[in-house]
């Protein structure tokens, strides 16, 4: 049964839709059949998530199961707001809620908007979280594998790079470009904090990595240094 708050959020999303934004989404998201795009900007959804952060998990579940893309995205952002305020067992319960519903996190924007801010805080808090990344990275779902990679953004920002390096090696032969791009993105993020660590990693492994991963990883390097690695691929 839907609640009044949930219906109010749905009405607001439809009222904030922009045809031009929907046209852009159709070009960049390649939505699955049956996925309805409204055309709501991400900053607008973030604002709504803050307003509706008190939604029940039943309401969040209804949003995640929706065939409307922005409803799923906003549900994930509401969940992120709740994770940010939670601690300990409550945070772990929210993470489990998310992990049980990753089948609905089924496009790159949904992954990238949720993995670092829903899983990320828990990865920092839970010292035995490596098994979770292993589980996700071994999934048959491309989106689960991308979730594993992008979730390490929180670790990178905290100065912990080894989980990302391990995933790059584990997924270097992944068949999906969406995973290759995410690997390169995370290496590039490490280079923002510790360029030498990325250069040393690429010196050892660049020839084993997908070309698109290397190209993304080296975007912040000096042109000559970047060319040295790209030529090897």
Key features?
single chain; 233 residues; mainly alpha; Serine Threonine Protein Phosphatase 5, Tetratricopeptide repeat; 15 helices; globular; DNA_alkylation
Give your account of this protein's structure:
The protein is mainly α. It folds into 2 domains: 85 residues, no CATH class; 118 residues, Serine Threonine Protein Phosphatase 5, Tetratricopeptide repeat. Helix content is 70%, strand content 0%. It has 15 helices and no strands. Helix 6 packs antiparallel against helix 7, helix 12 packs across helix 13 and helix 12 packs parallel to helix 14. It is globular, with a radius of gyration of 19 Å.
**Largest β-sheet summary:** none
- Per CATH, the architecture of the largest domain is Alpha Horseshoe
Low-pLDDT regions: none
Instruction: State mean pLDDT (0 to 100 scale).
Output: 94
Would you give the CATH topology of the largest domain? Serine Threonine Protein Phosphatase 5, Tetratricopeptide repeat
Instruction: Give the CA-CA distance, first to last residue.
Output: 54 Å
H and E string: HHHHHHHHHHHHHHH
* CATH uppermost class of the largest domain: Mainly Alpha
Note the overall shape: globular
Query: What is the structural class?
Result: mainly alpha
Reconstruct the topology from this structure.
Blueprint: H1 4-15, H2 19-29, H3 42-51, H4 57-64, H5 69-85, H6 88-99, H7 108-125, H8 130-137, H9 142-151, H10 153-157, H11 162-170, H12 177-193, H13 195-205, H14 211-217, H15 223-231
Helix pairs in contact: 3-5, 4-5, 5-6, 5-7, 6-7, 7-9, 8-9, 9-12, 11-12, 12-13, 12-14
Pfam families: DNA_alkylation
Protein name: DNA alkylation repair protein
InterPro entries: ARM-type_fold, DNA_alkylation
């Amino acid at each position: 049964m839907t609640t009044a708050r949930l219906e109010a959020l749905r009405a607001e999303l439809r009222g904030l839709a922009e045809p031009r934004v929907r046209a852009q989404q159709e070009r960049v998201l390649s939505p699955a059949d049956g996925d309805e795009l409204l055309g709501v900007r991400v900053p607008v959804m973030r604002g709504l998530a803050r307003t509706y952060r008190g939604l029940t998990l039943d309401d969040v579940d209804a949003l995640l199961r929706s065939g409307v893309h922005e409803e799923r995205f906003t549900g994930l952002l509401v969940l992120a707001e709740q994770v940010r305020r939670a601690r300990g067992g409550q945070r772990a319960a929210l993470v489990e809620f998310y992990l049980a519903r990753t089948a609905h996190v089924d496009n790159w924007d949904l992954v990238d908007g949720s993995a670092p801010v829903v899983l990320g805080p828990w990865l920092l808090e839970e010292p035995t979280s490596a098994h979770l990344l292993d589980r996700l990275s071994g999934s048959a779902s491309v989106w689960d594998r991308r979730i594993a990679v992008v979730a390490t953004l929180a670790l990178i920002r905290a100065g912990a790079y080894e989980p990302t390096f391990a995933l790059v090696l584990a997924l270097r032969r992944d068949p999906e470009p969406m995973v290759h791009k995410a690997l390169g993105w995370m290496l590039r993020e490490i280079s923002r904090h510790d360029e030498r660590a990325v250069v040393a990693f690429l010196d050892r492994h660049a020839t084993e990595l997908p070309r698109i991963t290397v190209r993304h990883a080296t975007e912040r390097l000096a042109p000559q240094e970047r060319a040295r690695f790209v030529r090897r691929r």
